[in-house]
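Just scan my protein:

——
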Amino acid sequence: MGQPFEVALTVCRLKSGQLVRGTEAKGRTPYSVQLRIGCPPGAVTTAIYHTHPGGKAEPSAVDILEARRLGIKHLCVENDFEMRCYET
């Protein structure tokens, strides 16, 4: 059995301040995932969460550049043991 596929989701903040899941995506390989940014109506994108199965709980240079390009200020990355969040 191989490594699980990388997954990602948008973290959204409702007007009430509550955090909810936005769009979710599953990668086609353990090493990449394409996520469309999307939140419920009236909510704003607060962060992107994604996994690095078998890797480090640190964003790659590509992760950081993509978050900055999209105007996302927080990026959370989880590996098999821990989750860490970073400002981009």
About this structure: The chain has a mean pLDDT of 91.
